[in-house]
Specification:
By secondary structure, the chain is mainly β. It is built from five helices and 41 strands. It comes from Silvibacterium bohemicum.
């Protein structure tokens, strides 16, 4: 494609588009009379690794640190004649921490003092954010298992897993990034496994709505992974082994090291269990899973102005598709899974190279070419009844992103472009063992691509007011062509003395559609079930959001309310009674919610408390506009319903409350309680025993208890869903029919650290 060639050329000539990868720290140091102190030595260190950077203040007492990955840091200041000082602060990618530090005249006996955690509220961003550290992941029950998403669902409001897919803020489509580099994947309902092993994550920054123009198209959630780097290790390795019920194990071996200029981290993992996907009955049957993978992160600091970062990962997973063996069960009267013996292989590989060039303390360039391979192979047994259906979807994505940002007076300016070319190779087939239709096998090879450009300005109108405005332009080219120009504007207000932050946002988004296409015998089969196929257009969203952050003695309360109105809402549907899932777009959707998070300070003596709550309504209206549409369109059965009805994953109230605690004798414990008010009921009529609009509410509790034995050994025991509370979670027809929540799982974990 000519436009994509143009993008490739720009990779080597100027800045390209990117989400914000790094944060920064700006500060001013003054004496008790508020006179600037020049020449003071300032050092910033990672709170959990050996990474550090050093500078001195200029004549105005100013200092800058750029290219800092999100995370917790310690900043220390030394100047002759003044009392040394050290402060802790958290850096996020969307903004920089601005510090005003007063040094006291040195006493005769000098000693280092810690003044506490820096202001937790973020006055420079209208995006609600949650930052999760590797310690949070290691301590939270079940969160560090290879295929776990508890690091998200336990900390992020409105995030939950149902019908084996992560949903957030009422939608399916979320973006994964590594080091701020996007991992493109337009397929929906094709993959179950997560993008990256949680044990390979140093920090995870979760952004939920109200994105700046530099952040892309997935309205419902953006997960930016800061991977393990090796700066936290000196020729050290770690072996993690687990063993539990359902014959489960999640194991990993990792190595890392660093010098002044080079740091590296590499890992390999393997896992298996007799419990994988959410089953259609309480007792899992034919539900084993296994997988393996590897990860590597390499950072080279060529000089103070140039850094190179390489991230690569490969994973392979297999899932048996659970079924209900009793043909007389009420579930099988609505969706008969008793004759299925299916499985799914999933492969995912990703590589990204980032060049970070610092022109000056105020000007930064990022350039990041990437490649992503994704494959989902749904495989039946030949004698599946009534039909053995096959789906093999393979996507290749080649492209890149970059950004150029600078500060001019009161303006923080940024801009760039982003693009990728996609080649989709999909096979759909079916063997009809009930002789209801002719057998078929159809392969579809389609191509397309996305090109985007954006600009944004953060204008610091006053010390208490920041105005943010940006524009993003998208060109999508495949079987159809979409062009979208969408503005994003917002403001933050810092209330003096209280240090509360008010924020507001209004913006538009465009999400590129899947490239799925069907024709030939598959289309004939779809027609026989009163459906046709229309190429999908991208989802277009309009969002407004208002929020308030309240910091108090290291605690942070963050509340927001938002509304997202979607046209061509991306969803998924199956062809007839088969296991072939095709993406669809629905005419419209409306998601309204208010959310609340509460976090205690990380240095709290007894541990860290966290709470995430969402009150949400997710609804849809109108006919299906793309993908598998109702056919013939002029029939009475295809008349659109313009009234709003709940989406299949609509859950009005979701609450997570947790505590990661520290006890005497190097003992630690973690506890998490989850409450869900129940998902929408898709089958309220007999033979279903549930006749309400929503399925039963459900509450589960998880517990982990462990102990450190010196510097090398850590052992722990975790119990998930301690009470073994089982409910029908949802009745969406994906991956084997209905879905019960996870049963009780108990496992032990041992961590052994060693030098090599």
């Amino acid at each position: 494609m000519r436009r994509l060639a143009w993008i490739a050329l720009l990779f080597f000539s100027a800045g390209l588009a990117a989400a914000a990868i790094f944060g920064r720290i700006d500060g001013v140091i003054h004496d008790p009379s508020h006179r600037p102190i020049g020449g003071a030595n300032v050092v910033v260190r990672s709170a959990h690794s050996d990474f550090h950077a050093e500078t001195t203040t200029n004549r105005e007492g100013e200092f800058y640190f750029v290219s800092l990955t999100p995370g917790d840091y310690l900043i220390s200041i030394h100047e002759k004649g003044y009392q040394p000082i050290e402060e802790g602060l958290t850096v996020e990618s969307s903004s920089g921490a601005v510090l005003h530090i007063q040094l006291s005249i040195a006493a005769v006996e000098q000693s280092m003092t810690v003044t506490g955690t820096a202001l937790a509220a973020n006055p420079d961003s209208f995006t609600p954010e949650t930052l999760i550290s590797r310690e949070d992941i290691a301590r939270t029950p079940g969160a560090d298992r290879t295929n776990s998403l508890a690091m998200i669902t336990d900390y992020v409001p409105g995030a939950y897993v149902t019908h084996d897919m992560l949903h957030m803020r009422g939608g399916h489509q979320v973006s994964w990034l590594i080091d701020g580099v996007n991992i493109p994947n337009t397929n929906i309902a094709s993959n179950v496994g997560p993008q990256i092993d949680p044990k390979d994550i140093d920090y995870l920054q979760v952004n939920r709505g109200s994105y700046g123009a530099d952040e892309g198209d997935r309205t419902y959630g953006i997960f930016d992974v800061v991977p393990r780097s090796g700066f936290e290790r000196n020729r050290q390795g770690e072996l993690v082994m687990t063993l539990g019920n359902y014959y489960q194990t999640n194991d990993q071996v990792s190595f890392g090291d660093h010098t002044e200029k080079f740091a590296w981290f590499a890992s390999a993992n393997g896992n298996r269990s007799n419990y994988g996907l959410q089953p259609p009955i309480e007792q899992p049957i034919h539900d084993a899973e296994n997988g393996y993978g590897g990860f590597g992160s390499f950072i080279y600091n060529h000089d103070p102005a140039n850094q190179f970062r390489l991230v690569t990962q490969l994973s392979r997973n297999y899932y048996q598709i659970p079924y209900d063996p009793n043909v007389n069960d009420w579930q099988n009267q609505l969706y008969n899974s008793s004759g299925l013996r299916d499985g799914e292989h999933e492969t995912d590989g990703y590589t990204a190279l980032t060049w970070v060039h610092t022109y000056s303390p105020n000007t930064l360039l990022n350039v990041s070419p990437f490649y992503h391979f994704n494959r989902a192979q749904y495989e039946p047994q030949a004698n599946d009844f009534p039909a053995a259906t096959t789906s093999d979807q393979t996507g290749n994505y080649e492209g890149g992103q970059a950004s150029l940002s600078t500060i001019v007076a009161k303006n923080s300016l940024s801009g760039g472009i982003y693009g990728y070319g996609q080649r989709e190779n999909d096979l759909f087939g079916a063997v009809f063992n009930d002789a209801s239709f002719n057998n078929f096998s159809e392969r579809q090879i389609v191509g397309g691509g996305v090109e985007e450009a954006w600009v944004e300005d953060n204008y610091h109108a006053a010390s208490w007011l920041t105005l943010i405005g940006g524009m993003r332009q998208t060109h999508f080219q495949a079987a159809i062509t979409d062009n979208a120009t969408y503005p994003r504007i917002g403001a933050t207000i810092l209330i003096p003395k209280l240090h509360w932050v008010l924020r507001g946002f209004y913006g538009h988004f465009y999400q590129p559609p899947p490239l799925t296409s069907i024709s030939g015998s598959l289309l004939q089969f779809a027609n026989s079930t009163n459906t046709g196929f229309v190429p999908l257009h991208g989802e277009r969203d309009e969002e407004h959001q208002f929020g308030l952050q309240i910091p108090w003695r290291g605690w942070l309360l963050d509340a927001d309310t938002f509304q997202t109105r979607a046209n061509n809402f991306l969803d998924h549907s199956n062809v007839g009674e088969s296991s072939i899932f095709i993406p669809v777009t629905v005419n419209g959707a409306l998601i309204q919610a208010w959310e609340l998070t509460l976090h205690s300070p990380r240095v709290w003596h007894y541990g860290q408390f966290h709470l995430a709550y969402s009150n949400q309504i997710a609804q849809q209206r109108g006919a299906i506009t793309g993908g598998l549409i109702c056919a013939p369109a002029n029939s009475p059965a295809c008349a659109p319903d313009n009234n709003y009805t709940p989406l299949d994953h609509d859950q009005r109230n979701t609450l997570n409350v947790g505590l990661n605690g520290n006890l005497p004798y190097n003992i630690f414990g973690s506890f998490n309680v989850y409450y869900g008010s129940g998902f929408s009921n898709g089958f309220p009529d007999p033979p279903s025993p549930f006749n309400g609009n929503y399925l039963p509410e459900h509450t589960t509790a998880d517990l982990s208890l462990g102990r450190k034995f010196g510097e090398k050994f850590t052992a722990s025991v975790s119990a998930l869903n301690i009470a073994n509370t089982r409910v029908l979670l949802d009745n969406s027809l994906t991956f084997g029919g209905f879905h019960y929540n996870d049963p009780r799982e108990i496992y032990g974990e041992v961590r052994y650290r060693f030098h090599f």
